[in-house]
Amino acid sequence: MVKENPSLQNIEAENGGATKAVRGPGRRLHGAIAHKLGMAILSGHYAPGDVLSGEVAFAEELEVSRSAYREAIQVLTAKGLVESRPKAGTRVLPRNRWNLLDPEVLAWAFAGEPDIQFVRDLFELRAIVEPAAARLAAVRRDKDDLKIMKDALSAMRRHTLATEAGRAADRDFHNAILHATRNDALLVLTASIGAAVNWTTQYKQRARALPRNPIPDHVRVYDAIAAGDPAAAAEAMGVLVDLALEDTASAMQR
Amino acid sequence: MVKENPSLQNIEAENGGATKAVRGPGRRLHGAIAHKLGMAILSGHYAPGDVLSGEVAFAEELEVSRSAYREAIQVLTAKGLVESRPKAGTRVLPRNRWNLLDPEVLAWAFAGEPDIQFVRDLFELRAIVEPAAARLAAVRRDKDDLKIMKDALSAMRRHTLATEAGRAADRDFHNAILHATRNDALLVLTASIGAAVNWTTQYKQRARALPRNPIPDHVRVYDAIAAGDPAAAAEAMGVLVDLALEDTASAMQR
DNA sequence: ATCCTGTAATATGTCGGAGTAATTAGCAGA
DNA sequence: TCTGCTAATTACTCCGACATATTACAGGAT
After folding, report:
1. Domain end position, chosen among A55, A79, A113
2. Is A222 helix (H, G, I), strand (E, B) or coil?
3. Residues A102, A122: one domain?
4. Which of A171, A177, B2, B117 is buried most deeply by CB count within 10 Å?
5. Angle between helical axes of A29-42 and A103-111 (0-180°, round to 10)
6. CB distance from A195 to chain B under 8 Å?
7. Along the 254 residues of chain B, how does pLDDT read in single tens digits?
8. Could you give the CA distance from residue B133 to residue B178 in angstroms, rounded to a whole number?
9. For B43-52, how does the pLDDT look when each residue is reduced to its tens digit (9 = 90+)?
10. Cα A6 from Cα B42, distance rounded (Å)
11. Count of domains forming chain B
């Protein structure tokens, strides 16, 4: 258990100037604090059971008002990361209480050095859900869905995955499939994970050039869905996820 | 777009007495507000795009301080339900921005009249994930996992599912399976959904007695996992989920 | 040794005000 | 009449202080 809070100074102080100049226009102060704290927890800087020393002391240390600190804590509490009780202080909750599928939490988890085991867990989940989604999409898609997928596909071809536009097209393609399942729960889940994993894709991108051309595999998924063949769609999507896992794993090991 | 806020008075006023007497000991004020507001949004009382009239006016109407109101809004914002911007007020975000897998959001969704389509979506997701989890568990489980499952099973036999203890044992059984997958992401996801769905189970409970004895089906799952047979485990779990869906659907139709 | 009780520490709830950003409307020019 | 800019209003954001309630902890009694 850490007693004092080590080196959390300078939340957002690139320059020593005014606060408003530092934080972006859309970014609120408590949001920045929550981000900072959330990353600190997800990165393991604070372990479950650790106590974030007293509210007043902490806010003082961060050089923000208690209100801002309290609102930040409120956010973390809403995501199940911490729990604060009178006298006891604010403690980091055990991992199983964390809301790991929250988009923001996911982002924090991937912001620092992502935990390899957790990434593998996430891909395992993807490997379960995405093929099943493709299976459903093959049955339930309509003409509009197919058109959107087709457009995204050609956009992926035009720009490569090396560009931001290309990656956006990739996201659109997958989102179109999810949307075609007509299942909101599936959509939300996969969208959250997808966003985090796409971050990993950028990560990978930094490491080296594309390992191989992913377009044909995407086309196979599209063809199967267009043909209304659930089994083939699931199989093709399975290949896609496996491929992504391979690439990511090899990129993270270096 | 609603302009004024209809009938949100008396957040927690059963009696006209002191506030502290009404809200439970562990329940904080802003938590109660967030609960109230969250339920109002999830139940469709506020539609996406609706604006919750001015902070001051609203806090006044709820008879709480602005700080409490703000902290409640903070919670909702963290869950992606609303977004507040200066001058524009606090607006309800579109549904696809909602954090539907958040345990609390799920609870709110089920608190009122649960949306049938959403329940179906959730069960579809369960039907995808849980058999896959059973498949993994069949391979990765160790002796301790089996012991916990066995204990939960016998507890389910002792108390029936009609009692709270029996339902707790049911939860334990499923959690043990999830834990045996050694996949935190899977565990968190299914735990969230399971909690909400268990609520539905209580719902069902009210409607009528148990439709049939679920114990043998649970035993089949256990046997397959104990035998280390992935395919059989997945199949048996699929049966379990289908059964639950059937029961819930028929219970909700009345 | 265990239980109880009092106290101090700490988080929670409240308030009002100053600051800031954005929408809206009003005005000027083409 | 339409377009572009300016200004004022409005609502959120942040702040610091105060009052309150809860609880952990310690010290004493049984």
Report:
1. A113
2. helix
3. no
4. A177
5. 60
6. no
7. 333 333 333 333 333 323 333 344 446 788 888 898 899 999 988 999 888 876 666 666 667 788 888 888 899 999 999 998 888 889 999 998 999 999 999 999 988 888 889 989 999 999 999 999 999 999 999 999 999 999 999 999 999 877 888 888 999 999 999 999 999 999 999 999 988 877 666 655 555 555 567 889 999 999 999 999 999 999 999 999 998 888 777 777 65
8. 6
9. 988 999 888 8
10. 41
11. 2
pTM over 0.90: no
d(CA A110, CA A89) in angstroms, rounded, equals 27
Q: Closest protein residue to D25 using CA and C1' atoms?
A: A87
Q: Which of B's residues 84-113 have CB atoms within 7 A of nucleic strand C?
A: 85-88
Q: Does B15 touch chain A (CB under 8 A)?
A: no
- Tell whether A126 is within 8 A of chain B (Cβ): no
User: How far, in Å, is the CA of B28 from the C1' of nucleotide D24?
Assistant: 19
A54 dihedral zone (left: phi>0; alpha: psi -120 to 50; beta): beta
For tokens 């289908």, name the residue: B242
Distance B28 CA to D23 C1' (A): 15
Q: Which residue matches tokens 């390899």?
A: A116
Q: What is the dihedral of CA A72, A75, A80, A81, to 10 degrees?
A: -30
Alpha helices in B43-163 (DSSP H): 55-62, 66-78, 103-111, 116-140, 143-158
- Asked if residue B127 and residue B244 are part of one domain, the reply reads yes
DSSP string, A152-220: HHHHHHHS-TTSHHHHHHHHHHHHHHHHHTT-HHHHHHHHHHHHHHHHHHHHHHHHSS-SS--HHHHHH
This model of the complex carries an ipTM of 0.84
Note whether A32 and A85 are same-domain residues. Answer: yes
Give dist(CA A150, CA B40) in Å, integer.
Answer: 39
Do A104 and A158 lie in a common domain? no
* Max Cα-Cα span within chain B: 63
Q: Are residues A133 and A106 in the same domain?
A: no
**Spatial CA neighbour of A134 closest among A180, A202, A166:** A180
Contact A81, A102 (CB under 8 A): no
Residues A137, A232 contacting (CB under 8 angstroms) = no
- A75 shares its domain with A165: no
Nearest DNA or RNA nucleotide to B28 (CA to C1'): C12
Average pLDDT score over residue span A8-25: 34
Q: What is the pLDDT of residues B142-176, one digit of tens each?
A: 999 999 999 999 999 999 877 888 888 999 999 99
Q: How far apart are CA B233 and CA B239, in angstroms?
A: 10
Domain that holds residue B38: 1-113
CA dist A121 and A116 (Å) reads 9
B107 and B132 co-located in one domain: no
In this structure, which long-range contacts are made by residues B212-216, counting pairs with CB atoms below 8 Å and at least 24 apart in sequence?
A: B214/B161, B214/B240, B214/B243, B215/B153, B215/B156, B215/B157
For the CA atoms of chain B, what is the radius of gyration? 21
What's the pLDDT score for residue A202?
63
